[in-house]
Design goal:
With 403 residues, this protein is α+β, with helices and mostly antiparallel strands. It has 3 domains: 64-74 and 323-392, conserved putative lor/sdh protein from methanococcus maripaludis s2 fold (Beta Barrel), CATH 2.40.420; 77-88 and 232-321, Elongation Factor Tu (Ef-tu), domain 3; 91-231, Beta Barrel (OB fold (Dihydrolipoamide Acetyltransferase, E2P)). It is built from 5 helices and 22 strands. The strands form 5 sheets. A 6-stranded antiparallel beta barrel has the order 2-11-14-13-12-15. Strands 3-10-8-5 form a 4-stranded antiparallel β-sheet, with no helix packed on it. Strands 7-6-4-9 form a 4-stranded antiparallel β-sheet. Helix 3 (124-159) runs antiparallel to helix 4 (165-198). The longest helix is centred in the middle third of the chain and has 36 residues, at 124-159. The chain is rod-shaped.
Length: 403
């Protein structure tokens, strides 16, 4: 009841008539609101038209990179191994007779030839024995000569029936006995001569003499354990190194084809080449403990670059790949099992391309999947993606040498 009474009361209020003050007030208020709204619209429109337009975001800067060019050429395939320099001959010279060492005719470290005199053992006792053997031989040769003369007389007398046959046979046996004695004397003479020759100790090979172990004045024994000198052949010299059994097939194939395989000897750092030689042969069996086979290479060693028992890095050139694509090794990238490179496009962007490696040697790699003349990114891979804008840095000019 109360709500209905209030509604009826409100409806019963008198409305403002046109031309009245209340009506004028309302109209002015409405016009004011409309004006304010129009002003606001004009202000918003003016702000939208006159506000500074946002500048477009600048494109990302090009990434500076280095690049190398793919070329066509040949590349050698090598096998690397640790090797030991091994002389062809090493001889410890000892005396074959007993006596006083009277002379040492070599200098330590001297290069000698086969037959050069190294040392002398006192030869006088052996020369005396030689003289005795010569005298004994001369005496027995005279007895044999006389026995032969008697045999001739007995044979003539037997023909004249002057002596029995038994005496001729006895004289013949005496001649044979004297001939045997002469042979024995000749053997003793030859043995004495050999002992005299052994007092002159000569070099059995061409090589370098080591440090002296015995000084003159010492008594040396025949075939003693202490050597008078140690000789080592240096020219030529060999290097023994091990090859993995997995690489054996490729090496044997080249050997069976009659090709000479080059071997380079490098120092421990593998930076300086010491000598160049060739492979001689492989061992006749694989070491089951290491899965390797020994190989021997020979080197002229004309300037004594290699020294016996020296450790070197041996590099065996197995074969040469000709007419292949060669690229800088620094351009090779890997993602799991995938090998790829970034190719510099004509529009100045980088594009990845999958490749296959054929062989690598130092800073050069032979591969497929690229073409000669392609530019490959070799540096600056951190933010590189397909389509990334790049700029290739120019290589620095080498610094001038200062004296």
């Amino acid at each position: 009841m109360k709500d209905s009474e209030q509604t009826s009361l409100q409806n019963s209020k008198p409305r403002a008539e046109p031309g009245s003050r209340a009506h004028a007030r309302r109209r002015r208020s409405r016009n004011l609101l409309i004006g304010i709204g129009v002003c606001l619209l004009v202000a918003v429109a003016a702000w939208l038209l006159l506000r500074p337009k946002p500048k477009p975001a600048p494109p990302p800067p090009a990434i500076p990179v280095s690049a190398g060019v793919v070329t066509k050429g040949s590349i050698d395939i090598y096998l690397d191994a640790l090797g030991t320099v091994t002389p062809v001959y090493t001889v410890t010279v000892t005396s074959r007779v007993t006596g006083e060492l009277t002379e040492v005719d070599y200098q330590e470290g001297q290069m000698v030839k086969k037959g050069d005199l190294l040392a002398v053992i006192d030869p006088r006792p052996y020369q005396a024995a030689l003289l005795q053997a010569q005298g004994q031989l001369a005496r027995d040769e005279a007895l044999l000569k006389n026995a032969n003369l008697d045999l001739g007389r007995y044979q003539n007398a037997y023909l004249q029936h002057a002596v029995p046959e038994q005496e001729v046979a006895t004289q013949q046996a005496l001649v044979d006995q004297d001939a045997g004695v002469v042979k024995l004397d000749q053997g003793n003479l030859d043995a004495a001569q050999v002992n005299v020759d052994y007092t002159q100790i000569v070099s059995p090979i061409d090589g370098r003499v080591g440090l002296r172990d015995v000084d003159p004045g010492n008594i040396v024994s025949a075939n003693g354990t202490t050597g008078l000198a140690t000789l080592t052949q240096l020219q030529p010299i060999t290097v023994i190194f091990n090859l993995a059994e997995d690489d054996l097939g490729a090496v044997v194939k080249q050997i069976n084809a009659g090709k000479t395989l080059r071997v380079d000897a490098f120092d421990r750092s593998q930076e300086r080449s010491l000598a160049e030689g060739s492979l001689i042969t492989l061992d006749n069996q694989i070491n089951p403990a290491t899965g390797t086979v020994r190989a021997r290479a020979t080197f002229p060693n004309l300037h004594n670059e290699l020294f016996p028992n020296q450790f070197v890095n041996a590099r065996l050139r197995v074969r040469t790949l000709a007419n292949v694509n060669l690229a800088p090794s620094a351009a090779i990238q890997r993602n799991g099992d995938t090998v790829f490179v970034y190719v510099v496009q004509a529009n100045g962007t980088a594009q990845s391309r999958t490749v296959k490696i054929l062989a690598s040697e130092g800073e050069t790699t032979a591969l497929t999947g690229v073409n000669p003349g392609d530019k490959l990114v070799t540096d600056g891979f951190d933010k590189l993606q397909n389509g990334t804008k790049i700029v290739v840095r120019q290589p620095r000019a080498p610094a001038p040498k200062t004296e």
